[in-house]
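User: quick one, fold this
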Amino acid sequence: MGSLATRRLRVLTNQLVGGSEQDALLLSREGTAGGAVRSLPRFDPYIMETYLDDLREMKRQVYDLFKYKPELLTGPELSKEDHRAMVRTQLRALLEEGINPLSFFDRDYKKYFYLAECLSMVDLSLMVKSGVQYSLWGGSVLNLGTEQHRRAYFDDIGSFRLPGCFAMTELKHGSNVAALQTEAVLDVLTDEWVVNTPDEGAIKWWIGNAAEDGRAATVFARLKVPAQDGQGGLVDHGVHAFIVPLRDEAGRCLPGVEIHDCGYKVGLNGVDNGAIRFSHVRVPRVNLLDRFATVDKSGRYSSPLTSEGRRFAATLGELTGGRVGLTCGSVGVLKGAVTIAIRYSAGRQQFGPPDSAEVSVLDYQSTQLKLMPLLATAYCLHFAKDHLVNLYCDMKRTKDALLIEEVHSLSAGLKAYTTAYTQDALSVCREACGGHGYAAINRLGQLRSDHDIFQTFEGDNTVLLQQ
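Assistant:
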């Protein structure tokens, strides 16, 4: 066994050094990959970083913020209340640093998605809360509304003075958005929408920002107007988006709004998910986000899109950015986890030839077979993610119909594949680090718990793979 181990070490060192046997023997005295790396040929990592990462200055700005303010880093033992407070503080610190996610979302999508990737390794709760506030709440107002809605809400959403929610999912319906039950009925006498939860199955559920912070929401509800025949019936035009206030400035729920905390979750406990019930809540008619359909004072419905199916597809199509953002965040998590596992395995020593230093765990073929495919796939997904982001930017600029279809399909498939792969990779990385990988301080367990939901929100992966 001793001679076999010695020969194995000699082969490995020759592969690493690529030089003379004397060089290999010198390296063998180091005994580990951690020591061996000092004898390896060098390349300039700046060249690789420049090639891979043309927005690296933003990454440095974000990471330096948390590096030099360690009190903003999330510890492993926070309660959900303390974690939520920490995430709010982190988000405001980003804004004070001059990093405004809504401004990026409005003017530079590439920077917005890159920020999501950076935040994924600070705290996934911070990334998700930022996404709820700016991509979902802010993005729905910008993409589904008109100029009047932008003027009324943009600054307050961007500055976090108006925390908001994206109230789509209901207790009985998640992926099947067309079957949502919440109603918005026009009262032509008062020129108001009456928003109502008809039964318990229609309670808005898992709504981010709702439990504590949200003061308004984009509520997806069935738009109903009085029938023009005067017989007292209602015409259901399907699911549309409405801005509905939730709380006053003091944080008290407004009349007719009932909100409950969803409590502890498997992960992402820094995000305040809540359940919302509406009891005949009245909002002005202009609170309909009316980019794709309008209703006048008489209740007459009109749309430039001729069918309900096309209107519904156009509405959901504007929300594709959420899947792009999750893909970027998931790639960021994969990069971080693989880095943690490989660095640990390079330094960790176990077993070796008699009377010699123990061998780095990374030198064992079993460890390489675990981690090297993850590293290679991380590079592949990095480039695939960049391709998706570039296509998305082109789509938003050109409004090309064929490109819209391509981005929809690619974002659905890549989100599903990336999040599923990363979730499996997190377990491999944790196991590759042995017992030390189980320590909360090393983050792999928390990343696995926080990332788990990426497989089912912003579209269940099983459903997305069919699109």
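User: anything notable?
Assistant: Residues 15-31 have pLDDT under 50 and may be disordered.
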